C-alpha cells in the first residue's frame, strides 16, 4: 500500500480499520476510507479481512500482536552471526539464547506478579477506565454495560466474553467486563481476584514455566568428539566479491521510505535515491539526457544557447 499511497493519512485510515475489534466498527472505518480515496478502498477491499483486520480474528491466539516484531527482534540479533559458517552461526545462536534466558529470569525475579508487567499495565488501564461504566444484570450470567459516548455492550460471564470482543481477542478483561465484576462484587457474589479473569498466558507462573528450560554450556571445539561419518562435508566454492562485505540485511523500499520520513521529520538531512530520477539537460532544457550527451534535441532552445556560447 505504501508503494502507491505514501502519505500519513492513508496509514492512519489503514490502522483504524486494522485495529477495530467489531465488524460494525470495521465497516465504519472502511466507509471513511472510501470517502477519503475510493481507489485505496477498492484495493484494500480485495484483501480478505480475516488476514489483517482484528475484527475478523477468531480470538484463538489470545494475543494483541498484529505485527511480526518477534521475528524482527530475533533477526536483528543475528547480524553478527549470519555471515559465519554454519557451526559458528549455531554457536552464536546458542550463546545468545543462553544469555537471553538468564536476562529474562532476572526480569521475572523482580516482577511483583501475579501477572507479567505488560499485562499488569493493560489491566490497570482498563480498571481505571471501568469507573465510568455501569452494569445491569438480566437475571442470568449476562450484563448490559453502558458508559459515555453511547458505549454499550453485553458481557457474558459464563463464556467470559464481551460484545466489544477485546476480552476475547487479547485475553485481558475489557473495561465493560471489569465494570461487571465490580457490580457482581457489590451484589455479594464471590468473584475472586481480578487477575483470575485474565488468560493464563499472561500469568507470571506461565512465564516462568516458558523459561524454566536452560541451555547447557558445552566444551570448546578442541574437546568435541570426532565424527565417524565416512563422508566429509566440504564448503562450496566461494569467490570474494570486491569491496567491503556488507553485514546489514538489505532493506526493502518501504523500509527505506519510512527511514527517510523519520529523518525528514527529525530535522536531519533527507537522503533520497537517484533511481528512476529523470535528468534535465542544461542546454536544451529537455529531460532524458544531460549537457554532455546533448545533440541539439531541443531545437531552437539548443541552437540559441549554442549561439550565445
UniProtKB/TrEMBL annotation:
<feature type="region of interest" description="Disordered">
    <location>
        <begin position="284"/>
        <end position="309"/>
    </location>
</feature>
<feature type="region of interest" description="Disordered">
    <location>
        <begin position="229"/>
        <end position="272"/>
    </location>
</feature>
<feature type="compositionally biased region" description="Basic and acidic residues">
    <location>
        <begin position="252"/>
        <end position="272"/>
    </location>
</feature>
<dbReference type="GO" id="GO:0008270">
    <property type="term" value="F:zinc ion binding"/>
</dbReference>
<keyword id="KW-0862">Zinc</keyword>
<keyword id="KW-0863">Zinc-finger</keyword>
<protein>
    <recommendedName>
        <fullName>SWIM-type domain-containing protein</fullName>
    </recommendedName>
</protein>
<dbReference type="InterPro" id="IPR006564">
    <property type="entry name" value="Znf_PMZ"/>
</dbReference>
<keyword id="KW-0479">Metal-binding</keyword>
<dbReference type="InterPro" id="IPR007527">
    <property type="entry name" value="Znf_SWIM"/>
</dbReference>
<feature type="domain" description="SWIM-type">
    <location>
        <begin position="143"/>
        <end position="185"/>
    </location>
</feature>
<dbReference type="Pfam" id="PF04434">
    <property type="entry name" value="SWIM"/>
</dbReference>
<feature type="compositionally biased region" description="Gly residues">
    <location>
        <begin position="296"/>
        <end position="309"/>
    </location>
</feature>
Amino acid at each position: 500500500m505504501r508503494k502507491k499511497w505514501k502519505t500519513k493519512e492513508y496509514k492512519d485510515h489503514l490502522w483504524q480499520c486494522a485495529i477495530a475489534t467489531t465488524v460494525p466498527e470495521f465497516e465504519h472505518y472502511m466507509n471513511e476510507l472510501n470517502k477519503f480515496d475510493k481507489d485505496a478502498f477498492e484495493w484494500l477491499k480485495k484483501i480478505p479481512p480475516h488476514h489483517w483486520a482484528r475484527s475478523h480474528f477468531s480470538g484463538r491466539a489470545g494475543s494483541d500482536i498484529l505485527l511480526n516484531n518477534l521475528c524482527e527482534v530475533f533477526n536483528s540479533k543475528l547480524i553478527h552471526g549470519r555471515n559465519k559458517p554454519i557451526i559458528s552461526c549455531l554457536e552464536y545462536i546458542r550463546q545468545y539464547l543462553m544469555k537471553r534466558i538468564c536476562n529474562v529470569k532476572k526480569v521475572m525475579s523482580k516482577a511483583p506478579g501475579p501477572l507479567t508487567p505488560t499485562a499488569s499495565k493493560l489491566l490497570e488501564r482498563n480498571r481505571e477506565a471501568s469507573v465510568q461504566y455501569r452494569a445491569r444484570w438480566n437475571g442470568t450470567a449476562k450484563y448490559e454495560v453502558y458508559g459515555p459516548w453511547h458505549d454499550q455492550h453485553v458481557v457474558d460471564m459464563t463464556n467470559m466474553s464481551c460484545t466489544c470482543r477485546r476480552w476475547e481477542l487479547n485475553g485481558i478483561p475489557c473495561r465493560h467486563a471489569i465494570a461487571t465484576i465490580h457490580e457482581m462484587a457489590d451484589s455479594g457474589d464471590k468473584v475472586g481476584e481480578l487477575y483470575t479473569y485474565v488468560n493464563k498466558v499472561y500469568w507470571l507462573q506461565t512465564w516462568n514455566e516458558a523459561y524454566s528450560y536452560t541451555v547447557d554450556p558445552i566444551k570448546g571445539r578442541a574437546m568435541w568428539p570426532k565424527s565417524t561419518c565416512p563422508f566429509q562435508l566440504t564448503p562450496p566454492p566461494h569467490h570474494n566479491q570486491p569491496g567491503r562485505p556488507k553485514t546489514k540485511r538489505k532493506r526493502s523500499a518501504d523500509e527505506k521510505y519510512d527511514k527517510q520520513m523519520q529523518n525528514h521529520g527529525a530535522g536531519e538531512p533527507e537522503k533520497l535515491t537517484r533511481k528512476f530520477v529523470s535528468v534535465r539537460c542544461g542546454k536544451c532544457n529537455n529531460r532524458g539526457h544531460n549537457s554532455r550527451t546533448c545533440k541539439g534535441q531541443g531545437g531552437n532552445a539548443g541552437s540559441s544557447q549554442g549561439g550565445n556560447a
